[in-house]
Amino acid sequence: MVKAQDIAEYFIWLANDSGSFISNLKLQKLVYYAQAWYLAIYGQPLFDEDFEAWVHGPIIPSLYQKYREFNRLPIVEEISYQQLAQKLGDTIHFLQDVADEYFFCDAYELERMTHIEDPWIQARKGLPNDVPSNVIIDKEWMKEYYGSRVKEEA
User: Is the entire prediction scored with pTM above 0.70?
Assistant: First the structure.
């Protein structure tokens, strides 16, 4: 199984390779959607780490801390595609599909999207959007919600 960091590195590589802007906020949402759709399609997690229902949407705290120094600036990090491809294997094709759907959305659009979807709402349990929370977004909620969307589109 890969780690959330491996998935993050793929999206950072893609941003750097395409000359795109990727902030910590956008990175978190892309990693979230990768996990969500993997759960929906394959019925198992892509990686073990959990997301928390923070004010600005789903966040993996360790990933946030790693890229915190960039604040709202683009994350620039040298990433070897060859090493990445070795780590990710065939998963890289799945991540490209996720990127095709979400990569060119900006961070705030992705944040708004997560705020109207059930897993984040369930974890927040009716808290106002501006109240901090570190409640875990249950992978089962993600699997059910995005799984139902897969069925709708089929």
Answer: yes
